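Batch job 17 of 40 flagged for manual review because the log was empty.
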Amino acid sequence: MTDSNKLILVVDDEVDICELMSDRLDMEGFRTVTACSGNEAIKVLLQHPDISLIITDVRMPDGDGIFVLEQA
């Protein structure tokens, strides 16, 4: 059972992985937003203060996942 009010941010510089994870979470009833870089993820966080969970790649060329989590 999922809470469809929960918003999850999925961050990965590999677009296929990002889409696959997002699609799977959507199928489970979660709402998702995606970002393809750490810097883009920061912008998404500012636009969506209701994000409940962040799933992120750690090593990315444009802002790593640790930076994203620190900013969150």
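Reviewer: the log was empty due to a logging misconfiguration, but the result itself is present. Strands lie at 7-11, 31-35, 51-56. Unflagging and moving on to job 18.
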